[in-house]
Amino acid sequence: MVAKISYGSSLYGALAYNGEKVNEGVAKILETNKVFCPADGGHDITACMQDFMAYMPSQIRTKKPIIHISLNPHPDDKLSDEQFSVIALEYIEKMGYGYQPFVVYKHEDIDRHHLHIVTLAVDETGRKINDGNNFYASKRITREMEQKYGLHPADRKQFKEAFRLRKVRPEEGSLKKQLASVIKPAAKFYHCPSFKEYRTLLSTYNICVEEVKGEVHGKPYNGLVYFVTDENGKKFGNPFKSSVFGKSVGYEALQNRFKTAKEKLKEKQLAPKTKWGVEQALNRSATREDFRDNLHRKGIDVLFRENEEGRLYGITFIDHNNGCVVNGSRLGKDLSANAIAEWFDRPHPELSDSVQQSEKSNLSQTPTSDEDSVLGGLLDLPLEAHGTDWEEEQFRRRMQRKKRKQRKI
Questions:
Q1: Any idea where the domains of the chain sit in the sequence?
Q2: Residue 402: its pLDDT value, please?
Q3: What was the pLDDT predicted at 141?
Q4: What is d(CA 29, CA 81) in angstroms, rounded to the nearest whole number?
């Protein structure tokens, strides 16, 4: 189990980040202490903050009195809510925050379910609690709990995963909630230069998006509708208008994002980084299956489009490290669908089993800067991190930008 500890000054920001997920139905509150939460499963963020403030001393001797902790079990550990609660309460107690007001949230918006804990880092006198060795103590406690509860050992160096959202699963129901948990972050994080690439991206998460055109009161209308699909791409259930999920995933907003994405792909040099990873994988692949596997280990997914005769006519790469979503032709003629098809039509005796085996043992990611990579943003923290919660990382970055602006003022 990996713990990520962050100190901050914004109590409302930490509560709002988690509370909004609860109210959207992609998180739940498991435990609280000295803080009231309604029994209907919702989260009154303002009321919760008032309860916290009742325990906040008037004189605080630190600039960062709020502590925000995420607990991340190994992906192979499938824990019940009861098990999560036991682990969270024991961790809080051993870290010295057992008597503090706190809220334990369980996030379910990605496959890797994990916990978030918000509490106060200062006691009633305003002094910081456990100041000094928190990160070392946390690592020791998580190791002890792994052994005690038979959990898989998790370490940032061993498990370095690219950002991937959770696929929509029609059989689980709550289709609107599942769609929202993918569409909103996908539209914000991934750089899709066109509707075609955006559509391809969503298809990997069992979502189909279609344009709707017509007239309303004599004026032309452009809109979008979203469908859930099964693993074979077959539509499931009724469509959802984009307005159900907010303007950020509507037609106009996405058109602006497509335009911005084209600029970012050039300005931030995201496409060349993706191209480097694709070329490295291709040079070690004798078959499409090898290519797909080698790319996946680099945090890149590939979608092949074929006609009825089985001829490859389109290829799209999704780089989960930097959010780059591009058709092969955008990366160059040598990575277009025709060039890739010709590569696999030729024999490659130079790609021996030993070479391919060495690639499978190499888990290195495509090199990206800390600024551009979601993973990179987590690595500058003095703690272990396992996997990436996109919204969590974006929240952290917003808080950093806010602090920088305040300093300038």
A1: 2-161, 170-257, 270-360
A2: 61
A3: 93
A4: 10
CATH number for the region 2-161 comes to 3.30.930.30
Do 221 and 214 meet the contact criterion of CB atoms below 8 Å apart?
A: yes
pLDDT score at 256: 92
Residue count (the chain): 409
pTM greater than 0.70: no
Closest CA to 402 of 8, 16, 7, 116: 8
Q: pLDDT by residue (tens digit) across 27-76?
A: 899 999 999 887 777 788 889 999 999 988 888 878 888 999 999 888 78
Q: What is the mean pLDDT of residues 210-229?
A: 82
Residue 92 structure tokens: 């809080």
Residue 284: alpha-carbon gap to chain centroid: 29
The closest alpha carbon to 13, from 118, 129, 126, belongs to 118
- Tokens 């994002």 label which residue? 257
Residue with tokens 């699909």: 229
- Cβ neighbors of 347 (< 8 A, separation 6 or more) are none
Mean pLDDT of the chain, nearest integer: 80
Q: Cα(407)–Cα(240) distance, rounded to whole angstroms?
A: 44
- Which of 5-9, 281-285, 376-380, 389-393 bottoms out in mean pLDDT, i.e. has the lowest? 376-380
3-class SS at 7? strand
* Token pair belonging to 85: 């609660």
DSSP single-letter state for residue 309: T
Long-range contacts, 194-202 (Cβ 8 Å, 24+)? 194/258, 195/254, 195/258, 196/327, 197/316, 197/325, 197/326, 197/327, 198/254, 198/258, 198/325, 200/303, 200/316, 200/318, 200/325, 201/316, 201/318, 201/325, 202/226
User: Where is mean pLDDT largest: 93-102, 285-294, 315-324?
Assistant: 93-102
Reduce the DSSP state of residue 67 to 3 states and report it.
strand
Question: Shortest CA distance to 87 belongs to which of 100, 77, 75, 101?
Answer: 77
* CB-based contacts of 211, cutoff 8 Å, min separation 6: 195, 222, 223, 224, 251
